[in-house]
Specification:
Number of helices of chain A: 2
Shape of chain B: globular
Helix content of chain A: under 10%
Radius of gyration of chain B: 25 Å
Strand order of the largest sheet of chain A: 1-4-3-2-30
Distance between the termini of chain B: 6 Å
Oligomer: heterodimer
Distance between the termini of chain A: 82 Å
Largest interface: A-B, 78 and 68 residues
Structural class of chain A: mainly beta
Mean pLDDT of chain B: 88
Number of strands of chain B: 40
Number of strands of chain A: 30
Largest sheet of chain B: 22 strands, antiparallel, barrel
Number of helices of chain B: 5
Low-confidence stretches of chain B: 1-52
Radius of gyration of chain A: 23 Å
Mean pLDDT of chain A: 92
Helix content of chain B: under 10%
Structural class of chain B: mainly beta
Protein name (chain A): YncE family protein
């Protein structure tokens, strides 16, 4: 039986070599990095950054930059909400604040995550299939969704906008809009939503739907251009709409719609992948890929929204744009006018958030989660 | 009549060579016993042309060993080889592809009965589709099979897997073999199969094999996560949905021998419908996507020694693959696509023996491949590939060497849009082997190979993603190894062997997906450089206890440092590439006692990252599974039965190989085989 003993020993030894290697799976803790000097009295106490994460990877994540300490907190959601199964979810697409609540639209997870602004702890979730963007008015949230009924002739579902009660998180009403609706803006009692038709390549949608908020019906479809995406309102009744183009012959453009007449009144022939309006200035960048040449064109520009003129200058003035591989979001701090640009790089590794002062000089940068793209500012408690 | 678990059905005198060339002949003793019982066996046919001595041994597993591992598919068995990683999406119907030495799944060539299985569309062969039911041997070669008398295609991959189906072999007086098998167990598996072999004449034998696989694919998975205080943060479990499969495989073949030659013909049909269970992320626990596959091919091979010095080998194949993919999710873009892939392949290989130690060969292949798909603005590409390989081998008692050069010429035409430009590449390979001492126990060997993989049709033409400007992706391999094998005739210890390989690979112009304007639109680019340093270790031992209990042990260990050196500016520069563990290994312990057999197998995959960047968020825990099986053979009135019971993933470990695709926990399988 000696050999039998040897055999047993061998099995046991092999077991030992390999055992003990697997530990408990734990929540990934936040990474805290001081990135700038503390500003205890800052008008905005901080900002939340929603990172999209690559589709199917469940890597949507939330970061927080604290102005009062100058510390960037990367990946805070899981730590603050350890009991939420599979964390924040898959592909974060929009983040906004309304009242004391923080809303994160998690596209592939088919939900809007509602959290406390103060600590990003979960208050609830709103289940909406294939949800994209969120905006607010009169105590209601409006969420755009790709997932309406399938229209046979189009072979892709038509989209809708859902009206959601911000206290009960219940969907109250729905209105069918165009195909694959994206961002919305509200001017007066009207909601404007950009319909992309991105699922219907090459038969893109080319309209902005105008919704009456009282009746919650579509008043009109404004013909603009193919593959629309962002919608931002300025302070004097105009909305700015971006078109992605078709990555081939038709380039990305920026359009201005007069909301009194609900018509396009001006077109800017500039690449417009994202836009933010702060005061009288719109900050725009374009990152355009062409299948014809296999090349990228990245541009930065500014528009005076009062005079509706192109300023033809980059808002980054110190050459930092050369370091930015794939601009994926632009935001401006409403008080300090600091400009924030996020870099998604190759979409499958940590991104970078750049902070520029109002003259376009880099103040600091921080590593973010994967595909940083959506920022919201948190007002300081007075 | 009885089926021979064919393995070392070779004469005893050849045994030492086989042990050298055939890694790992685990159950040598048991098989020897079988062989003796079977008396003189006559091979009607052999798979490969006569080997002139493999300079670089492959890793092999034969029917008997495959049977006792109880693996369901070829992919499950290959996990026990060293230097490979299986990308496994889980379940019976889940996609399973093989990455050899971290060069990427597209660099792996898969050959079925000597002819390559093509997939011009995505360049990957789903090894989960290939059943072990009628498999005689699975072999894996790094570089290439170091045999110069082979089609030019066989020189054309960075690593190759050869699947060889069972060949009829009849003992004197035998005319018919019939074997029926039923497998059942977890996942709602119902898997009956039938094998029929018939001797038609002294020179021709026919075989027919069919199999039906039906499974619900339902299995439990769980995610348990702890918080920083090691208290359970969440603990959830659910059942995998939409993982069902219904597949039928039918295969028929003829094998013939002639004066100084042999021939074979084969027809293959596979038809399946399956659900694609998809990724599991927050708030999403099921998908509705479905896939239909219909694969058909007919192939034939002919080999003859024309003169004492000159031999030819002819191969031909026609294949038609149909895929229908439906994603009926009304919340998403509804997809309903049909793909049709056509392939015709012709090859001629010539070998001429200049002297009794020096041979030269010349092979020429032509392949025509066409893809039709009802995608918008699809290009409808056709690829014409011509391959020419010239090779030479010298074989001495203690030294052998081979050198080959492969010329690849690729033309493409498209019906619309623009086609990829003409490609013409020449790639060399050199293999040497040296036995330093008169005793044949120890051998040293080395190889160098440079090869590339063409961009696939998806890489080039997939609507909205493809990039026709793509260049081939190159892989360069350097390998040095040592083999030591010894058989003992008079000791309780019967066999021992160890094999070590150190290697360095470089993948350049790697084809990677890069994002387009948003993350849902990507494009393919030649962007990527990976350097791989690795060590493969294989060890085996066999011993016999009290003349009755035969035991064998086989262990493998793989170390791989595969680093991304694409751009020094990247955060992940120098990081280990995604899904490649630094440490991995396997172990198989088998025991035979009278008519009983027991098997324990273990697989270990070390920690790794599920993204390019080696950061905490991408960290993936190691996983390791233990499988056990117990089998017994018995006879009743000339009918032989074999029953096996298995428990896989004994420790019920929940893990993921691919992010968001949970693998099954503990599962069971029962197999009944009847031989008439």
């Amino acid at each position: 039986m000696k050999h039998f003993k040897h055999t047993c020993l061998l099995i046991a030894a092999t077991g030992l070599i390999f055992s003990g290697c697997r530990k408990n799976e734990t929540i990934v803790p936040p990474v805290l990095t001081p990135v700038t000097n503390p500003e205890p009295g800052a008008p905005y106490a901080g900002l939340y950054m929603l990172n999209e994460g690559n589709m199917g990877s469940n890597k949507a994540s939330l970061d927080y930059f604290d102005y009062t300490t100058g510390i960037y907190h990367k990946n805070i959601y899981a730590q603050n909400n350890p009991s939420v199964v599979k964390e924040l979810g898959d592909v974060g697409n929009d983040i906004q604040i309304y009242g004391n609540k923080l809303y994160a639209v998690i596209n592939v997870s088919n939900k809007v995550e509602v959290m406390n602004v103060a600590d990003a702890k979960r208050l609830g979730k709103i289940d909406i299939l294939n949800c994209r963007y969120i905006t607010f008015a009169n105590g209601k949230a409006y969420v755009s969704s790709y997932a309406g009924p399938v229209k046979i002739e189009a072979n892709a579902p038509i989209g809708f906008v859902a009206e959601v009660d911000t206290t009960t998180f219940q969907v109250l009403r729905k209105v069918i809009v165009g195909y694959q609706p994206e961002e919305m803006a509200i001017v007066g009692n009207k909601l404007y939503v950009a319909n992309s038709g991105g699922y219907r390549v090459p038969n893109y949608d080319r309209t902005v739907s105008v919704i009456d908020l009282t009746t919650f019906t579509e008043l009109k479809k404004i013909d603009v251009a193919i593959n629309l995406h962002h919608v931002k309102a300025d302070s004097d009744g105009d909305i700015y709409v971006t078109s992605r183009g078709n990555y081939r012959g038709i380039p990305s453009k920026l359009f201005v719609i007069d909301t009194k007449r609900d018509e396009v009144k001006k077109t800017f022939d500039i690449g417009a992948s994202d836009i933010v309006i702060s005061g009288d200035t719109a900050y725009v960048y374009g990152s355009e890929f062409s299948y014809n040449t296999g090349k990228w064109t990245i541009t930065y520009n500014m528009v005076n929204v009062k005079t509706e003129t192109l300023l033809n200058t980059n808002f980054i003035t110190d050459g930092t744009e050369k370091l930015i591989k794939m601009p994926y979001g632009v935001t401006v701090n409403p008080a300090t006018k600091e400009i924030f640009v996020s870099d998604a790089k190759d979409y499958v590794s940590s991104g970078t958030l750049y902070c520029f002062d109002k003259t376009g000089k880099k103040k600091w940068s921080a590593f973010t989660g994967d595909i940083p793209g959506h920022i919201v500012f948190v007002k300081a408690n007075k | 009549m009885r089926f021979i678990e064919q393995s070392c059905s070779l004469t005893k005198g050849l045994l030492c060579i086989i042990v050298y060339a055939t890694w790992p002949a685990t159950n040598t003793l048991a098989q020897q016993a079988d062989t003796i019982k079977q008396k003189a066996l006559r091979e009607v046919s052999v798979t490969a042309p006569r080997a002139t001595g493999e300079v670089s041994p492959g890793q092999k597993m034969q029917a008997k060993e495959l049977g006792r591992l109880g693996s369901h598919s070829v992919a499950d068995a290959i996990r026990f080889f060293s230097g490979v990683q299986i990308k496994d999406y889980g379940g019976i119907g889940g996609l399973k592809t093989v990455d050899i030495r971290s060069m990427g799944t597209n660099h792996t060539g898969v050959f079925y009965d000597g002819i390559q299985l093509g997939n011009a569309q995505n360049g990957q062969v789903d090894l989960g589709k290939f059943s072990l039911d009628n498999m005689e041997e699975i072999a894996l070669y790094n570089g290439q099979k170091s045999n110069i008398f082979q089609p030019a295609k066989d020189f054309g991959s960075a690593g190759s897997i050869y699947l060889t189906s069972l060949k009829p072999k009849f003992a004197p007086g035998e005319k018919t073999h019939l074997r029926a098998t039923l497998k059942t167990g977890s996942f709602g598996l119902f898997n009956p199969s039938l094998l029929w072999q018939q001797k038609i004449s002294d020179k021709i034998a026919a075989s027919f094999s069919t199999e039906w696989t039906s499974a619900t694919g339902r299995y439990k998975y769980a995610y348990k996560v702890y918080d920083s205080l090691q208290k359970v943060a969440y603990d959830t479990s659910a059942y995998r949905r939409n993982g069902d499969i219904n597949a039928v495989r039918v295969e028929g073949g003829l094998n013939g021998v002639m004066n100084r030659g042999e021939w074979s013909a084969k027809i293959y049909y596979y038809n399946s419908e399956r659900g694609l269970p998809g990724f599991i992320v927050n708030n999403v626990y099921g998908h509705v996507d479905r896939l239909w596959d219909r694969d058909f091919f007919i192939q034939s091979s002919f080999r003859k020694d024309i003169t004492k010095r000159y031999s030819i080998l002819l191969n031909g194949k026609y294949a038609y693959d149909y895929t229908h993919y439906v994603a009926p999710d009304t919340a998403q873009l509804p997809v309903n696509n049909h793909y049709r892939q056509y392939e015709t392949y012709l090859s001629m290989a010539n070998q001429y023996a200049l002297t009794n130690w020096w041979t030269v060969s010349l092979s020429g292949d032509f392949q025509w491949t066409k893809l039709d798909a009802d995608l918008k603005e699809f290009s409808y590409p056709t690829r014409y590939t011509t391959l020419v390989a010239a090779a030479s081998a010298v074989n001495f008692q203690r030294f052998s060497a081979q050198a080959s050069i492969l010329g690849t010429f690729v033309n493409e035409t498209v019906k619309q849009n623009a086609g990829a430009p003409y490609q013409q590449k020449f790639t060399p390979a050199v293999f040497i082997s040296w036995q330093p001492f008169p005793a044949p126990d120890l051998r040293l060997r080395a190889f160098y190979k440079r090869i590339f993989r063409m961009p696939t049709f998806n890489d080039l033409y997939y609507t909205e993603i493809g990039n026709r400007f793509l260049q081939p992706e190159f892989a360069t391999q350097y390998d040095a190894g040592i083999t030591w094998n010894k058989t003992f005739t008079d000791k309780w210890f019967t066999i021992a062997g160890i094999e070590l390989d150190g290697y360095y690979n470089e993948v350049t112009d790697k084809i990677v997906a890069v994002p387009g304007q948003n993350q849902f639109v990507w494009s393919m680019m030649n962007l990527g450089q990976v350097k791989i340093k690795g060590l493969d270790v294989k060890a085996k031992a066999g011993w016999r206890i009290r003349q009755r209990l035969d035991m064998s042990l086989k262990a493998t260990y793989t170390f791989q440092r595969a680093q991304d050196f694409t751009n020094p500016g990247d955060l992940f520069y120098g990081d280990q590439i995604a899904y490649i563990p630094r440490n991995s290994g396997s172990l198989i312990l088998a025991a035979d006692f009278n008519n009983w057999e027991a098997n324990y197998s273990f697989i270990y995959t070390g920690e790794r990252y599920n993204g390019k960047e080696n950061k905490r968020e991408n960290y993936v825990q190691p996983w390791y599974t233990s499988d056990i099986s117990l089998g017994k053979q018995f006879s009743y009135k000339h009918t032989h039965f074999h029953i096996t019971a298995q428990v896989n993933n004994l420790a019920n470990q929940f893990y993921e190989v691919v992010i968001s695709y949970p693998m099954p926990g503990r599962n069971y399988r029962f197999i009944l085989t009847v031989n008439i």
